[in-house]
Amino acid sequence: QSVLTQPPSVSAAPGQKVTISCSGSSSNIGNNYVSWYQQLPGTAPKLLIYENNKRPSGIPDRFSGSKSGTSATLGITGLRAGDEADYYCGSWDSSLSAHWVFGGGTKLTVL
Amino acid sequence: VQLVESGGGLVQPGGSLRLSCAASGFILSSYWMSWVRQAPGKGLEWVATIKQDGSENYYVDSVKGRFTISRDNAKNSLYLQMNSLRPEDTAVYYCTRFPLFYFDYWGQGTLVTVSS
């Protein structure tokens, strides 16, 4: 069971908007940055969002991130078939044993 | 930026393996680095992180005392020494750059299979 909680799956039609939630605690999301990763089938993960809401160069503005309290959200607008992938949130956890934590991942299906 | 892992393979339970990661396109000594793994059909799991000069290391509880992360900045290389391997260590292991606090570049991964 992952420290960060994500819905196992979400789905939406092409062109629509979808959001993926990531719930944590004060030791991770509440006091540290959140990042998001996209993993297309059979490939290595790729950074989508870092420091809660920043996009690396080359990531389109269809992807957005936000954080409030101990939860974070990834938003994807203008859905395309190529967005179908697994999405993971992650954060540093500054509890007694400092470590990194990932969410369990969310499978996005573009209908 | 390029990260290329090597050293994966099939090993028996209790055995050892050393993974390597060749880094290029950036100054390795300027960055924290990490290993992240993914068991077949499962999610991502952080394994270990090392500071630029190797003076600080962090590990997931399940590998503490068995795995050692290290680096040789002069050789542009990151390593993961894995001892006392267990079947549950079976996974694709990714080398990642970790510029505090996110993983911005990932290698293609190397598969480690622990089985008799």
Q: Based on DSSP secondary structure assignment, what is the total number of beta strands of chain B?
A: 11
Proportion of beta-strand residues of chain B: over 45%
Overall structural class of chain A, as computed from helix and strand content, comes to mainly beta
- Any idea what the shape of chain B is? globular
- Biggest sheet statistics of chain B: 7 strands, mixed
Structural class estimated from helices and strands of chain B? mainly beta
Percent in helix of chain B: under 10%
| Count of separate DSSP helical elements of chain B | 0
Apparent shape of chain A:
globular
Q: Count the E strands of chain A.
A: 9
Query: How far apart are the first and last residues' alpha carbons of chain B, in Å?
Result: 37 Å
- H and E order of chain B: EEEEEEEEEEE
Work out the radius of gyration of chain B.
13 Å
Low-confidence stretches of chain A: none
Approximate helicity band of chain A: under 10%
Oligomer: heterodimer
Average pLDDT metric of chain A: 96
- Detail the poorly predicted runs of chain B: none
Query: Overall mean pLDDT score of chain B?
Result: 97
Q: What does the radius of gyration of chain A come to?
A: 13 Å
Topology, please?
The complex is a heterodimer of chains A (111) and B (116).
Chain A: E1 9-12, E2 18-23, E3 34-39, E4 46-49, E5 63-68, E6 71-76, E7 85-93, E8 99-102, E9 106-110
Parallel strand pairs in A: 1-9
Antiparallel strand pairs in A: 2-6, 3-4, 3-7, 5-6, 7-8, 7-9
Chain B: E1 2-6, E2 9-11, E3 17-24, E4 32-38, E5 44-50, E6 57-59, E7 67-72, E8 77-82, E9 91-98, E10 105-106, E11 110-114
Task: Write a brief caption for the model.
By secondary structure, chain A is an all-beta fold. Chain A is 0% helix and 45% strand.
Supply the key terms.
heterodimer; A: 111 residues; mainly beta; six-stranded mixed sheet; three-stranded antiparallel sheet; globular; B: 116 residues; seven-stranded mixed sheet; four-stranded antiparallel sheet; 11 strands; 52% strand
